[in-house]
Amino acid sequence: MSYSQRLLQQGSSLTRLAHQSRFNKVLDLIRQNHYTQALDYGCGDGWLLRSAYNQGLISSGIGVDTADYMLAACHELFAEVPGFQFCRPRDVVKTIAPHSCDLAMCTETLEHVIDPEAALEQILSYCKPDAHLIISVPIEVGPSLLVKQAGRYLANLKGAYGYERYTPQELFTATVLWDATRFPSSHSIPVDEISEESLEGASGRGHKGFDYRKIEQLLQQKLTIQQRVFSPFPLLGNLFNSTVIWICRLA
User: Fold this and answer.
1) What structural domains does the chain harbor?
2) What is the enclosing helix (H) or strand (E) of 18?
3) DSSP strand E in the chain: where?
4) What does the angle CA 136 – CA 142 – CA 148 come to, to the nearest 5 degrees?
5) 136 — phi, psi (to 5°)?
6) Residues of the chain whose pLDDT is less than 70?
């Protein structure tokens, strides 16, 4: 069973709902067009790219990830499919030409990278002027966090789901005050104090201490946000949802 299959089929009912709805929503958002070349930055095991290909939404693609075991899974998943390549971020420049992608996806990734702005700049450098960008990150502040921690706790009871714990005070600060800066986390460490090399093979920053609103501010500086969608319950906004998804175009 692949990494993505475990997310979609195991865990608790809450975690399965969160992951399944996110995958489906991203695919729905790109369904209106057919794309020649897609860039999936933070592709994991390639599940999203393969789903888009199977549904006839993309013809070719490049998957980028930092974990060797994820890239190996991608190569296995696409072993008999031409037109797809997979590499680490530092090797993208040797893999595809600048401004060659008409679709860029970056789902559940920017919360983990050391420098989100640098990652976004790299993504943009491979986008055509009229490219669509689909970017999603988890909501880890406000009431949503309470629901997510409950789901993670239940999933972990079934065996080694893994998640970051909060003290009662930290949980109050993040959920009631919407402030993830008042307690220590991987996101409280300045960018210039962390090197990518020191985290090779690790997941980078964690979920704890992440605030999606900082990513939205970054996107507003560099892109035109056409739509913001919350998942899995769009009408509930940022109060009781696991994920926020932005549909963007180059400004």
Assistant:
1) 3-139+208-250 (3.40.50.150)
2) helix 13-29
3) 35-41, 58-64, 84-87, 101-107, 127-138, 223-231, 243-250
4) 65
5) -135, 150
6) 1-2, 5-7, 9, 193-203, 251
**Distance between CA atoms of residues 241 and 90, nearest Å:** 33
5: closest CA among 44, 54, 41?
44
User: Which amino acid is located at 237 in the chain?
Assistant: G
Q: Is the pTM of this model over 0.90?
A: yes
Q: Cα–Cα distance between 19 and 211 in angstroms, integer?
A: 19
Question: Helix-strand-coil percent breakdown of the chain, rounded to 5?
Answer: 40, 20, 35
Whole-angstrom distance, CA of residue 189 vs CA of residue 207? 13
Distance CA(135)–CA(218), nearest Å, equals 12
Task: Show the tokens assigned to 92.
Answer: 């993208």
State whether residue 53 is helix, strand or coil.
Answer: helix
Rounded CA separation 41/32 (Å): 21
Task: Round to whole Å and give the CA distance between 38 and 103.
Answer: 5
pLDDT in tens, 118-176: 999 999 999 999 999 999 999 999 999 999 999 898 888 877 778 899 999 999 999 99
Counted residue by residue, the chain has a size of: 251
